[in-house]
Specification:
The complex is a heterodimer. Chain A has 13 helices and 2 strands. By secondary structure, chain A is mainly alpha-helical. Chain A has a two-stranded antiparallel sheet. In chain A, helix 3 runs antiparallel to helix 4 (about 90-105), helix 6 (about 140-160) crosses helix 7 and helix 6 packs antiparallel against helix 11 (about 235-260). Chain B has a domain at about 90-315. Chain B has 13 helices and 2 strands, in the order E-H-H-H-H-H-H-H-H-H-H-H-H-H-E. Chain B has a two-stranded antiparallel sheet with strand order 1-2. In chain B, helix 1 (about 40-60) crosses helix 13 (about 345-360), helix 7 packs across helix 8 and helix 7 runs antiparallel to helix 10 (about 260-290). The chains are: A mainly alpha, B mainly alpha. At the A-B interface, helix 4, helix 10, helix 12 and helix 13 of A face helix 5, helix 6, helix 11 and helix 13 of B.
């Protein structure tokens, strides 16, 4: 494989967890709720995946456990932000801090236990002879295929269905949506719970496929990069795909440079994804300085029916 | 009948049913309640302890015994109390740093990185200017750490003010950059050549170490922290700058119309915020570890966020909450003998923040009967 193909393959494997987390975040933020708990949710997803897989050896149970736990955490976030209307930033931070602590606590006994090959691969042998496509798609695991499907489903859901229209209305203008008879609070609950499940799945994907050993704090800021990716992607699932793979490349490019045998210390190469995140955000801020960011207009404001202040 | 019938005694037309009343009791925000009562904090902490007891019990341990051990480990012995205060010093400094930023709704979550930047900058003094007398080296280390942390804070502020970049993301990304930089110097150029490959710099000389109290580990950083508390309280209450900050915090639109330059305030606040965390980094390397080493912070910068929030950004409240959370960290270490990981304290911290924000909000609600 030449370098470009290698990078593409790497982008796919390290970009998929980011993609899941970004898609979950987009679903949540489209409903008007800020989602900053991604780091904690991903860590909880990863640790649950590792714990269940080690104890049961069943992929179905593993995914079920991950989805249940992240849905429960999503319920907490939605109860706090939608029903109690607490500051969404602080609730998200609390989620991150709690998830980081709880995952470290739960994962202590299994730290360093490797779990190889949990997710079956879809072998498409006829693709082997095709140059680049074969390297990329011939032996992909099922979760990655599911992420492709999810991008399309989410895109169609948001832009082509009446429920998606309701969702956009809630994110942009909840009072109007309410007058139209859309159950605003219920929709927000649903989006937060489903979105949190996707973010939890991102953590599970990271652990089951990308680096199959639990290490405390293994997401290393990927949850926060996913928060930035929501902004890059302008809250659009299709763009999210390209942004996630771009960051997948940034995630692995340092490692590749090291393999080539460069003199730059690895610590500096590991800084690349973090610094690129800031630089890209600055570039977008500069380019869009006179344009709307594409964010849902009611993002961050709780909706209070029948009350005035 | 011209009179309005009393509720519950609606005369029924044939074929109609009374409209169902969906909720008899309804929650709504009581606008007259601005602040939640002080006991709500205690209730929230207790509920968080109760919540985490589930996870401790799931681990096959008696939660009550674990909490008792944490408390006695942190607050009953002389060693425990001084250790708690030693941990409270960086929490207090970082907590003050993030508080001042949160006052004007700048969400600095980068205290961890600013702490590391300050520690690296202070250590640079010992590396590049060895053999200075203490009256030169200590002030120089303080200065360097303030500048280092301040630069790290400014790196968060400038993208925000000039490119509208969300400071939450920038400050967090910079945490990882600072920690990698710290790893680089302690594994690379500054590593102690006689340290048997230990990832740390050579031990500081006595002239580069902060004085300690008697034969305890409690060091002079406590004075820095308490001085910072007084300075913060004074600035906020009695200076024009503090007034402007309070105005921005209360109503940014009004502040802007009053001619306050918000961008400039954001930059200065972030520099001050970073400088305080940087000073915490200096006091930690110079007062506690006496060297810069790998994993120098057990997440002080993140805990400081909760410390600031639980104190409602009040400087004197911060003194209390940082001692409490210092005790929580020490308690976390002391239950390791029971076979529990010390990350139990991180779990508790997160849970406390959850219950605290929920509790503070619930206190503002009132129950009201429908109809």
């Amino acid at each position: 494989m030449d370098l470009i193909t290698q990078l593409l393959v790497a982008a796919l494997s390290s970009g998929t967890p980011l993609l899941f987390a970004t898609l979950g975040g987009i679903l949540i933020e489209r409903s008007g709720i800020i989602q900053l708990g991604a780091e904690g949710l991903m860590l909880m997803g990863a640790v649950m995946a590792c714990l269940t897989y080690i104890h049961t050896g069943s992929l179905t149970l593993t995914l079920l456990a991950v989805l249940t736990v992240s849905a429960a955490l999503g319920l907490i976030h939605s109860f706090l932000t939608v029903t109690l209307r607490v500051n969404q930033i602080v609730s998200g931070l609390a989620m991150t801090l709690f998830g980081t602590g709880l995952s470290a606590y739960l994962g202590k006994p299994i730290t360093g236990t490797p779990i190889p090959g949990a997710v079956p691969k879809l072998d498409l042998d006829f693709l082997d002879s095709v140059p680049i496509v074969g390297d990329l798609f011939a032996h992909l695991d099922l979760l990655t295929w599911f992420s492709f499907l999810l991008v399309i489903v989410l895109h169609l859901f948001i832009h082509r269905t009446s429920w998606g229209l309701h969702l956009r209305a809630i994110g942009d203008n909840p009072p109007t949506a309410d007058v139209m008879g859309i159950p605003v609070q219920l929709f927000r609950y649903g989006c937060i719970v489903v979105g949190s499940m996707l973010i939890g799945l991102a953590g599970a994907d990271l652990l089951l496929i990308y680096s199959p050993t639990w290490i405390e704090g293994m997401t290393a800021g990927r949850g926060w990069i996913a928060v930035a990716l929501i902004i890059f992607a302008r809250w659009n699932p299709l763009r999210a795909m390209f942004c996630a793979y771009f960051f997948g490349v940034m995630d692995t490019i340092g490692f590749k440079i090291q393999l080539i045998g460069s003199a730059i210390p690895s610590y500096f190469l590991k800084m690349i994804p973090y610094i690129v995140t800031i630089l890209v955000l600055m570039f977008l801020g500069y380019r869009n300085r006179n344009k709307p960011s594409g964010s849902p207009e009611a993002l961050g404001t709780p909706y209070i029916r029948e009350q005035r202040f | 009948m011209s009179e309005r019938p009393a509720a519950g005694a609606l005369p029924l037309e044939p074929g109609t049913a009374p409209a169902p009343r969906r909720f008899i009791i309804r929650l709504e925000i009581d606008p007259s309640r601005k602040e939640s009562p002080w006991w709500m904090t205690i209730v929230s902490v207790l509920l968080a302890l109760l919540f985490c007891a589930v996870f401790i019990a799931a681990n096959g341990k008696n939660p009550w015994a674990v909490y008792e051990k944490m408390f006695t480990g942190a607050f009953t012995t002389e060693f425990g109390i001084t250790e708690t205060l030693v941990k409270a010093i960086p929490l207090l400094l970082c907590g003050l740093g993030v508080s001042i930023a949160y006052r004007i709704a700048v969400w600095n979550i980068g205290a961890e990185g600013q702490f590391a930047a300050g520690a690296i900058a202070a250590t640079a003094v010992t590396v590049y200017f060895p053999d200075l007398p203490f009256y030169a080296s200590i002030p120089l280390m303080v200065l360097f750490s303030i500048v280092g942390g301040g630069i790290w804070g400014a790196l968060t502020a400038l993208p925000k003010t000039y490119f509208q970049v969300n400071e939450l993301i920038t400050s967090l990304m910079l945490n990882y950059v600072a920690l990698l930089l710290l790893d680089y110097v302690v594994f690379g150029p500054w590593k102690d050549p006689k340290g048997f490959n230990f990832p740390g710099t050579p031990m500081f000389t006595d002239a580069e170490s902060l004085p300690v109290l008697g034969d305890t580990r409690l060091h002079f950083g406590l004075v820095f922290a308490l001085a910072a508390v007084l300075l913060y309280a004074f600035t906020m209450r009695y200076t024009r700058w503090g007034y402007e900050l309070r105005l921005i915090g209360a109503n940014p639109e009004a502040a802007k119309n009053a001619g306050i330059r918000i961008k400039r305030h954001i930059i200065i606040v972030m520099i001050v915020s970073g400088a305080l965390a940087g000073l915490a980094g200096m006091s930690e390397v110079s007062g506690v570890t006496h060297r810069l080493m790998y994993g120098i912070s057990p997440g002080y910068g993140y805990t400081a966020i909760i410390v600031a929030w639980i104190a409602k950004l009040n400087p004197f409240g911060l003194v209390v909450s940082s001692v409490l959370f210092g005790g929580l960290i020490v308690g976390g270490y002391s239950v390791q003998t029971m076979g529990l990981p010390s990350s139990i304290s991180n779990m508790l911290q997160g849970a406390i923040l959850f219950f605290l924000i929920a509790g503070n909000m619930i206190a503002k609600f009132r129950l009201r009967r429908n109809g």
